[in-house]
Amino acid sequence: MEAWMTTLLQTLSLPEYGLGTAFVVAFLSATLLPMGSEPVVFGLVKLNPELFWPAIGVATLGNTLGGMVSWAMGWGAHALIDRERGHATHLRAVDWLERFGPKACLLAWLPVVGDPLCLVAGWLKFPPLACACYMAIGKFLRYLMLTAGLLWAAEGLQLPGWLLKAAG
């Protein structure tokens, strides 16, 4: 079993498979499934440091698209419930979100509340393009900071030159 797992992990870490794996895991982890994509992105970058930017980009894209699936589920659920009840549904718990509008999607990267936030943004029928843009910004910054921080913390691993200059 251990040999099989080692072979699988080595195969998935190859650049030609690793980016696809990071995309799929990032996409699935942005839905309401209880999983995280950060270990996959970090592992890929640790094994293939030259894939730092592609991994961040692919994970951001996958996670944003997964967030938009949650947005669409919220929008669809609201439309279905409104049609079944014969009148508009309103939840008091989301009143504060309405004040922020699509900008609240900047927080879609947060653990526990981020994925439901995308769902609620759809429920509130926030504009999809604005939500996607704000989600992408927040998720990109999360992947960038977490991956760079983990690389920095990993013993003997050098950070990309631009990051060293910025920290510097």
Structural notes for this entry:
This protein is mainly alpha-helical and 168 residues long. The chain has one domain (15-167). The chain is 71% helix and 0% strand. The protein has eight helices and no strands. The protein has helices at 2-13, 15-29, 38-47, 52-85, 95-100, 114-123, 128-153, 161-167. Helix 2 runs antiparallel to helix 3 (38-47) and helix 4 runs antiparallel to helix 7. The longest helix is centred in the middle third of the chain and has 34 residues, at 52-85. The protein is elongated. The model has no long low-confidence stretch (mean pLDDT 81).
Report the structural category.
mainly alpha
| Largest sheet composition | none
Please count the beta strands (DSSP E, at least 2 residues each): 0
Mean pLDDT: 81
